[in-house]
């Protein structure tokens, strides 16, 4: 099976632009082809709304820094 999907590399992780139907634990082979970033024509208000909508911390995220103040 071959699936092509765009992704963004952020903080050491590839974030897919859309979900893909794979069984949990499926191993895949990834080929990376860098493309030019598309310009973001968003207003500052839209950008701030996106930032505000992001979760501050996810309970099962081992990289969330949840224990940083302990």
Summary keywords:
70 residues, 1 helix, 2 strands, little secondary structure, two-stranded antiparallel sheet
Quick synopsis:
The chain has 70 residues and is mostly loops.
Question: What sort of overall outline do the alpha carbons produce when their principal axes are compared?
Answer: extended
| Largest sheet entry | 2 strands, antiparallel
List the strand order in the largest sheet.
1-2
Query: Which structural class do the helices and strands define?
Result: little secondary structure
Alpha-carbon distance between the termini? 46 Å
Quick one: how many beta strands? 2
Radius of gyration computed on alpha carbons: 16 Å
Helix content, binned percent = 10-25%
Unreliable stretches (pLDDT < 50, length at least 5) are: none
Give the number of helices: 1
- Rounded mean pLDDT is 82
H and E order: EEH
Strand content: 5-15%
